[in-house]
Amino acid sequence: MRLTRTSDLWWKNAVVYCLDVETFRDGDGDGCGDFRGLTQKIDHLERLGVTCIWLMPFYPSPDRDDGYDITDFYGVDPRLGTLGDFVEFVRTARDRGMRVIADLVVNHTSDRHPWFRDARASRDSRYRDWYVWADEPPADGPKGVVFPDKEDSLWQYDEHTGQYYLHRFYKHQPDLNVANPEVRDEIARIMGFWMELGLSGFRVDAVPFMLETSGQTDASRLPDPHDYLADLRSFLSRRNGEAILLGEVNLPYADTMPFYGGADGEELTMCFDFVGMQKMYLALARRDARPLAEALTARPTPPKDGHWATFVRNHDELTLDQLSDAERQEVFEAFGPEPGMRLYGRGLRRRLPPTLGGDLERLKMVYSLLFSLPGTPVLFYGEEIGMGEDPEAEGRQAVRTPMQWRPGRGAGFSEAEPSRFPARVVQGRYGPDHVSVAAQRRDPGSLLSWIRMLIERYRENPELAWGDFTVLDTGSESVLAHRCTYEGGTVVALHNFSADAVEVGLVLDGFDSSWSLTDLLGEGTTEIAPDGRAVIGLDGHGCRWLRPRPTGA
Ligand code: GLC
């Protein structure tokens, strides 16, 4: 049954790749990325080993929050193509063995959505109750405001109808009222629509906010938010047994776990590991593996078929909000020394390579961590080639620049005049003349080749994705060692957070001198002593993945 199980629960060893159609590849020469361009570039994703593409919002939008402000949940923004182009893309992806998921952004709509336009036209509108209104906003001021540079309240006064509406994010994004059964039905309809067109699930935007019912007046009508999430999941599974919900829940572990549901895992299939990600940056800043080791040891195991989704960088600011103030300050000092590199007082608006001063060995170590730690790795486009950011771009846009396919002004993103691009191509040291797919494809020493190899090894060694996981004692503060065991097989991985070479001793329970360790990322064999001890050397920022094999076998 093992084979069937591993393919049925495909998300457990998936490689997810997040991209924005708008900035990936322009197929019609108008300067804006589109589905046709993306379809042309699908071979790159296949070669890389991606198994699931996560599309950032591509729905019609005034684009005041990079498409997270939607005016029609059932369409494709005309700048990006048509529904026909979308279907051709999904079909091509599936042909290459890749599933497609997309952002489901139903905490709010754009204020230009016809539902909201109607809702604010009169208190008697049929859509009035699709949003959350109050005569007086609760007196909690800016508490809970997500974008403190732009907003100072969660409530906005609507002159015409004389009430305030709730907006968890920007004021141009009024929150939908999930307490309203009509809204809940509509959300299911949206999911059903896209699944019918081939999607294998959704990345669910801002889950805790979407389920939040505080601030709503008639508490008796409110469903239990977790019952509602479980309802959505069972609807999804009825329509498509392999479909997943990957949720954005940026909370401490204990508060995240309920979003998986109970022992049967009947809510989200996967949650992003925001805590582990932030502790990894702290470990990098300190050159000390312990903060990450502690987080991984404390991290609960998701119920049933659930899984963590792990990542190094996403499309937003690199949030550090789960660290203590002092820890965050340490990361800021190490990786965001200039105020312009920081955002909202809680995060960084940089990509990883500039943050690490372009140190290729250190970067390679970080991606080796991503693919060897338990959880489903999620890449943000451009990470595979080590793209940098545009510090001149506004806020979070800094990391949302055009994909760099080849050297030259347009980066191979588009043949149009760059002034027509949705964002400026990165300039300077991380620009396309220095960082591009074309330059790295055939270079065995490139980051792209490294990540391709990591993905291959991660897919070949099921222990990493499926196994039981333990952190091993190395006696060294700078080295993280972990062991994954699955159906009799074992893989051990070591990562050195320091720039100095080190030698560590490990005890591998269950093994003796009739076994030796084979390197999975390179050549080499290490002996195991009769008592299970092995001495392993690592370069500065080195990493090794090792499999015990019977000696002489
Ligand atoms: C999520 C998205 C972010 C967006 C926000 C509002 O946090 O990741 O990009 O701005 O939701 O939709």
UniProtKB/TrEMBL annotation:
EC number: 3.2.1.1
Keyword Transferase: yes
Catalytic activity: Endohydrolysis of (1->4)-alpha-D-glucosidic linkages in polysaccharides containing three or more (1->4)-alpha-linked D-glucose units
Domain Glycosyl hydrolase family 13 catalytic span(s) in chain numbering: 18-420
Gene3D superfamilies recorded: Glycosidases, Golgi alpha-mannosidase II, Oligo-1,6-glucosidase, Domain 2
Domain of life, per lineage: Bacteria
Coiled-coil region: none
Any Gene Ontology biological process: carbohydrate metabolic process
Key words of the record: Carbohydrate metabolism, Glycosidase, Hydrolase, Isomerase, Transferase
SMART domains in the cross-refs: Aamy
CDD domains tied to this protein: AmyAc_TreS
Single GO molecular function: alpha-amylase activity
Family recorded in the similarity comment: Belongs to the glycosyl hydrolase 13 family.
Protein name (Swiss-Prot/TrEMBL): Alpha-amylase
Taxonomic classification: Bacteria, Bacillati, Actinomycetota, Actinomycetes, Streptosporangiales
